User: What shape does this take?
Amino acid sequence: MRVERLVPGGLRWRLAAWVALVVVLSSAITFVAVYRGTATQLRRQIDKELAGDSSELEHAISAPGHRSPREVVEAADRYISGQPFSAGSTLLFAVIPGGGTATNRPELFTRGRPDNGETAAQQAHEDRSAQRLLGTRYGYSTFNLPDSGEVRLLKRSVVLSSGLPATVGVAEPLDSVSAAQSGVARAFILAAILTLAGALLSAYVIGTRFSAPLRRMAAVAARVDAGDLHPRIHGTGGASREMRVLAEAFNHMLDRLTEAFAAQRAFVADASHELRTPLTVVRGQLEVLAAQREPSAPEVQRVTDLVQSEVARIGRLVEDLLLLAKAEQGEFLRTQPLELEPFVAELWQGAKMLAERRFELGEVPSGTVQADPDRLTQALRNLLANAVEHTAEPGGLVRLSLDTPAAGRVRFAVEDDGPGIPAEHRELVFDRFQRTDRARDRASGGTGLGLAIVRAIAEAHGGTVRAGQARGGGGGARIELELPGFIPARPAPTGGGLVVGTPGAGAPAASPPVGAAHSRPPAGTRGGGGQG
Assistant: This one.
């Protein structure tokens, strides 16, 4: 058994402690209620008995034949002596002015020598108690009597049938109340101990059962923390729905983590390979050049050009990697309201300089989009460059179209008539260092990061990017970049059609109507309007 199981700090022990606390508090509240309720009920019963005894004593001394105080006292003595009360139990007394006091406890009401082996001090204490007893208020009260302890007293002032005033008193010890409360306390303590033990055992067993999936998760998490990403949580069929959902989410998280680590390892391996290849070429060429005692000028120039080309490749690769790293930071974008028409016009003019292709620009919605112009330009240029790389000159088709698929969103779509992207690779093309076209080698200048950068820029804007098949049934690829934050422009007051470019005086005369004006090359070029 591991040490952690013996330490009272786990879920099972905490659950047992909370259950014990609840049981103790509940038992304490119930005990107080029953303890006080028992005392109250017994006191009410005693008060009822006192009222009955007092009424009987009053009836005994109120007989019509008792005219003088002396006769009343004698009648009271006869009634009291006929009761089965011992000297230490119920106290009865009747005080008749001019006749004296009749009682079953005469030592409380007569001053004299100590009796029953009592000392003078004890007798003096009894005398003071008798004085306090006679001086108490009428009605019910609690009083402490010598030799009897705490008693419940009912003292009444009555007028007899003969017209004589009298004071009638009855007192009964409260030992029965104390005894009943002691019994309740003992019973509750015993029941509370047994209940607490049962609750602790039940809570520990229940906690053990319900925390078993959590302990398995903790064990799996410990193995994952040690570097093993293969274990999963199984055997939750009998667990609660919440535990099953948690286990499934935990397993899904581990799957994602495994994929992320695998992608990271692949990325590091690919990046190392991409950097190693140009470095190997540079080192090899420099070694070849160094092996020659007097290399010719053409050889030096050849090596210089090759080294510069490879260094430029390394620079582009490093810049792309830095861009992808910055995409995960909060200050990657500097967004601003961007007018679509002038932005697309400027982008399109630069795109036609990439190569000699058949470039076509579709309709451009009028409005603004909240975006970073530099990053959005970089993403769209990567898509256009990707389309150019997969089409043949001079007549290969490269088309850019825009539309608004939903309110507040704008979609850029770049299409070509190249070989297209297989359906099983349309999600992979946005991963780093992914090349679906194996015919292209690194000599073409590609690093495999262009579409990964596009996805990073799209996600940073809160948008999406996806690949598909070009529309029209002619094959080719279609990559859509969709962004939020589009605000359409208000309709122009005149009924004229929209044109691509910046409206107003000074607009370029070459700004054609939207559509086919860009689909034909200008004079002096071959194919698609781009320059080779």
The mean pLDDT is 78.
